[in-house]
Write a structure and sequence with these properties.
It contains nine helices and twelve strands. The protein is of the alpha/beta class.
Length: 280
């Protein structure tokens, strides 16, 4: 049975027999919301009133991903994760749960056992993810509102940790991973959505490529560059893409006007898919 850590005292949390609440030995209790998730982000641990992605960003991303534009990435993740062995998996920064749902579907096809935790600091994202999963996946997914800076899981409890376009916290990732565990990260490469950036920014600045986690803590076990082209022919889908990324909010009013006028665009998806193991 899955054990969580209390975000207040770090004691073990266990789910009651009714699956309606989690409770630790010190009496701290966290109710399971009607959508099926539990909020383990106390007010004192929040840096803002409503941290993480907004409800609008969550819904825009969900609509975009539902159209399968990033299916090659979902397939790549499944290829890396599903090795035929039962495992506990944490999706740290799960968003609306798209990649985790895709992974579970492929695991079911291959009859592989996965015990999954989906975690995000945005309550809107976790609420959406839990609602989409429904009761059929409840035994295999525990949805949490929590922060990567304080992951409410015991040490050495995770076989595979996913961080997809997320914000890694090296010390916490290293703590929750088993000694034999692996960290799979996806980050944008230099050409990612370049065509869109060239439209909305007066000048596109290239950033130096660097690993997303410190080399003295993590050893790079595998690195693949996933690049594919996709076409958006509906203005609605273009607006969903813009709303789900930070580009719209960073662009000038002129850049936003250009984006709003787009009716079609061909884009390059360019991503680094890396697997790390602990080096300490």
């Amino acid at each position: 049975m899955l054990t969580l850590n209390c975000p207040i005292c770090t004691q073990a949390l266990r789910c009651d027999s009714s699956h309606r609440s989690w409770r630790c030995a010190n009496g701290h209790t966290f109710d399971v919301a009607k959508q099926g998730y539990v909020n383990l982000l106390p007010v004192q641990n929040k840096r803002s009133k409503d941290p993480g992605d907004s409800k609008a960003m969550v819904l825009a991303r969900a609509e975009f991903l539902r159209a399968k534009y990033y299916q090659p990435l979902a397939d790549k993740i499944a290829q890396l994760v599903l090795n035929g062995k039962p495992q506990t998996l944490l999706d740290a920064g799960c968003g609306g749960g798209y990649y985790l749902r895709e992974l579970l579907a492929q695991a079911e096809q291959r009859q592989q056992s996965l015990n999954c935790v989906g975690l995000d600091i945005s309550k809107w994202a976790v609420q959406f993810a839990a609602k989409q999963s429904g009761s059929t996946q409840a035994p295999r997914v525990t949805w949490l509102v929590a922060s990567n800076s304080q992951i409410p899981l015991p040490a050495d409890s995770v076989d595979t940790l996913l961080c997809l376009f997320g914000f890694p916290v090296s010390t916490e990732f290293n703590r929750v991973l088993k000694p034999s565990g692996r960290l799979i990260m996806v980050d944008p490469a230099s050409e990612h959505l370049l065509e869109l950036k060239q439209i909305i920014y007066p000048q596109v600045h290239s950033k130096p490529e660097q690993l997303p986690v410190p080399a003295d803590t993590w050893q790079l076990a595998d690195e693949q560059r996933l690049t594919f082209v996709f076409e958006l022919n509906q203005r609605e889908h273009i607006q969903h893409l813009l709303a789900m990324t930070p580009h719209l909010y960073r662009a000038s009013s002129q850049g936003r006007a250009k984006a709003a006028a787009l009716e079609q665009i061909t884009l390059t998806a360019d991503m680094w898919v890396r697997t790390f193991v602990s080096a300490v």
